[in-house]
Design goal:
Strand content: 15-25%
Largest sheet: 3 strands, antiparallel
Number of domains: 2
CATH superfamily of the largest domain: Periplasmic binding protein-like II
Number of strands: 10
CATH class of the largest domain: Alpha Beta
CATH architecture of the largest domain: 3-Layer(aba) Sandwich
Radius of gyration: 18 Å
Order of helices and strands: HEEEHEEEEHEHEEH
Shape: elongated
Distance between the termini: 13 Å
């Protein structure tokens, strides 16, 4: 839902200007819908893709970061290793089980951390005010945290570690017989969304958001 609100409006407006006779129905949800059963022509999903009968076009990796406010780090200290997060207020972000672990790695070293903090949510936007206010540490996609990062309200930590790579995918039903308008929108979204996912901070962590 956050990606749709922050990123999708511009590309859709440009497409409708080029194709004024086309009508598009957009549904934003953090739930995973059944594309075939729900009669959906195209779906955008950020995830590490599981085996699926759906046709998938990989658009781009999704950059992200582990973030906290300067005030929080001044008060509680800056973690230098992922295992130190166990002593901090770690805010959980995901779409299913609260206890899904964060798996960090760097140059042959691995570390697994289970979020045990005061809040778990399936929507990252609700976390930003809490993090800015010094409420804890979180791992979030950059498209959610970008404004707070640019403003200096939050900063990146553990930048020498990585989390499992996740990508933005464009999914469609398995039948390859699609109307021309659907193919045109598919091509347009792939072309225009690549820059939205990577951006200036693509060298930092990439997150799986489920």
């Amino acid at each position: 839902m956050s990606f749709g609100i922050k990123v999708l409006g511009g590309p859709l407006a440009a497409f409708l200007e080029m194709h004024p006779a086309v009508e598009i129905e957009v549904m934003l949800s953090d739930a995973r819908h059944d594309v075939v059963a729900d009669g959906i022509d195209l779906a955008l999903r950020i995830a590490s893709m599981e085996d699926s009968s759906l046709l998938a076009r990989t658009i781009a990796p999704v950059a992200g970061s582990v973030i906290a406010s300067p005030a929080y780090l001044e008060k509680y200290g800056t973690p230098r290793h992922p295992l130190e997060l166990g002593r901090h207020r770690l805010i959980g972000y995901g779409h299913r089980e609260r206890t899904l672990p964060l798996r960090f790695h760097r140059e042959g070293e691995e570390a697994t951390v289970v979020p045990t903090g005061p809040l778990f949510t399936n929507n990252g936007d609700v976390m930003i005010p809490l993090i800015v206010a010094g409420g804890g540490i979180a791992a979030l996609p950059d498209f959610i945290a970008e404004e707070a990062l640019v403003a200096g309200d939050v900063v990146r930590i553990l930048t020498d570690w990585s989390l499992p790579q996740s990508f933005l995918h464009l999914l469609s039903p398995p039948s390859r017989l699609r109307p021309a308008r659907v193919k045109a929108l598919s091509d347009h979204l792939v072309d225009t969304l690549k820059r939205s996912c990577t951006g200036a901070h693509a060298q930092h962590l990439a997150l799986g958001s489920g």
